[in-house]
């Protein structure tokens, strides 16, 4: 999955990625590759209250807190992997510390970066795979976690089912957003399911439920329900 294949998904949230991270007018560069089939035992985690990364998606992120600037800098010197994870409700009072997080997150690899003069970063994080937090290491300013990888393997026999689910998703999307262009054919079924799961407007806890679904087919089924529910409320 390359940046050009993400343009359709970016339209959904109005993020003009190619302008924000254009090699012609910034220091954006390709710095990673999403070819990994497993995860390191320990990864930095980036907890947020309203952003959930999915395996076959990508998220543009603006990094401004000093502890997370250090996280990005360290990641770039290593394997460029960062784990995204959702903060639990009621985290506000502990935000500056280590507030509680959900157990399941998604690791991504930095595929583009722009370092700003004041030390902030604009990055694009491409989803790799889900993980479960086993424990945390508090030796850094940012959070490090020992994790267990949760690969989502699509069997060949399940491919026709996913194709049908994509068609159902596209019909539901057209009903909810009639003017929204459908994804082009070179956007894979996996990218359609995970891209919409990440970007279609819904509550953070609903998005977390999609992430925790038992594989792509189940996530697609849940996404179809959410799209249809949204249509019925319109």
Structure write-up:
It contains 7 helices and 6 strands. The relative contact order is 0.18. Helix 1 runs parallel beside helix 5 (189-199). It has helices spanning 7-13, 17-20, 66-77, 159-176, 189-199, 204-211, 216-233; strands spanning 42-48, 58-63, 81-86, 104-115, 121-137, 143-150. A hairpin with a 5-residue loop joins strand 4 and strand 5. It folds into 2 domains: 3-150, Archaeosine Trna-guanine Transglycosylase, Chain: A, domain 4, CATH 2.30.130.40; 156-233, no CATH class. Strands 1-3-4-5-6 form a 5-stranded mixed β-barrel. With 234 residues, the protein is α+β, with helices and mostly antiparallel strands. 33% of the residues lie in helices and 24% in strands.
Summarize the structure.
By secondary structure, the protein is an alpha+beta fold. It contains seven helices and six strands; from the N terminus they run ααββαββββαααα.
CATH topology call of the largest domain: Archaeosine Trna-guanine Transglycosylase, Chain: A, domain 4
Could you tell me how far the N terminus lies from the C terminus, measured between alpha carbons in angstroms? 33 Å
Q: What structural category do the secondary elements indicate?
A: alpha+beta
Q: How much of the polypeptide forms β-strand, as a percent range?
A: 15-25%
Mean pLDDT: 83
Q: What's the CATH C level of the largest domain?
A: Mainly Beta
Largest sheet: 5 strands, mixed, barrel
Number of domains: 2
- Give the overall form: globular
* Residue share in helix: 25-40%
The CATH superfamily of the largest domain is known as LON domain-like
Number of helices: 7
Number of strands: 6
Q: How are strands sequenced across the largest beta sheet?
A: 1-3-4-5-6
Q: Order of SSEs, N→C? A: HHEEHEEEEHHHH
| Level-2 CATH architecture of the largest domain | Roll
In the predicted model, the low-confidence regions spanning at least 5 consecutive residues are 1-35
């Amino acid at each position: 999955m390359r940046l050009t294949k993400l343009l359709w998904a970016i339209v959904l949230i109005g993020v003009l990625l190619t302008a924000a991270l254009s090699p012609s007018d910034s220091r954006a560069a390709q710095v990673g590759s999403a070819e990994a089939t497993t995860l390191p035992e320990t990864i930095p985690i980036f907890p947020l209250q309203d952003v959930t990364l999915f395996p076959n998606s990508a998220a543009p992120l603006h990094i401004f807190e000093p502890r997370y600037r250090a996280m990005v800098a360290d990641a770039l010197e290593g394997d460029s992997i960062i784990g995204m994870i959702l903060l639990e409700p009621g985290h506000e009072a502990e935000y500056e510390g280590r507030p509680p997080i959900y157990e399941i997150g998604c690791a991504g690899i930095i595929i583009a970066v722009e370092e700003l003069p004041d030390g902030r970063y604009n990055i694009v994080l491409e989803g790799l795979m889900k993980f479960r937090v086993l424990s945390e290491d508090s030796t850094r300013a940012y959070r490090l976690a020992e994790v267990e990888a949760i690969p989502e393997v699509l069997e060949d026999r399940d491919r026709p089912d996913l194709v049908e689910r994509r068609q159902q998703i596209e019909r539901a999307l057209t009903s909810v957003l009639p003017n929204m262009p459908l994804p082009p054919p070179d956007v894979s079924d996996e990218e359609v399911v995970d891209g919409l799961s990440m970007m279609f407007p819904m509550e953070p806890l609903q998005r977390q439920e999609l992430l925790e679904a038992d594989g792509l087919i189940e996530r697609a089924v849940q996404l179809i329900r959410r799209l249809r529910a949204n249509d019925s409320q319109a």
